[in-house]
Write a structure and sequence with these properties.
By secondary structure, this protein is an alpha+beta fold. The chain contains six helices and two strands; from the N terminus they run ααααββαα. The chain has a single domain, classed as Cytochrome Bc1 Complex, Chain D, domain 2, CATH 1.10.760.10. The protein is 57% helix and 13% strand. It has a two-stranded antiparallel sheet with strand order 1-2. α4 packs across α5. The chain is globular, with a radius of gyration of 14 Å.
């Protein structure tokens, strides 16, 4: 029986491998971390352009996760798939969360 962490890692690797072209050296991932944090926190729906290709989909919001979890997820994405972006701090997630709540 797999534990929580190994189950989560298996699931994450399975899902991410199916969308790797989107993540690989994408400006959405390697660019400004604030936009990616906002997407993970608040979700996103509709068309986006990545490397001259249009994707249409739904990313549900994950605002129910704590700041450390969001920072870990965003850092993981930004450090994988050919990306060498800097890690994301939980403090930065908290600031962006507070700012986006204030703007709703």
């Amino acid at each position: 029986m797999m534990g929580y962490n190994s189950s989560f890692n298996w699931f994450l690797n399975f899902v991410v491998s199916s969308i790797k072209p989107f993540y690989n050296e994408s400006e959405w991932i390697a660019g400004n971390e604030e936009k990616l944090i906002e997407i993970v926190l608040n979700g996103m729906q509709g068309d986006i352009m990545v490397k001259e290709k249009t994707y249409n989909g739904l990313m549900p919001d994950h605002g129910h996760l704590d700041d450390h979890a969001i920072a870990s997820i965003v850092t993981y994405i930004r450090k994988r798939f050919g990306n060498e972006s800097s890690p994301v701090s939980a403090l930065n997630v908290k600031e962006i969360r507070n700012r986006t709540i204030d703007n709703k």
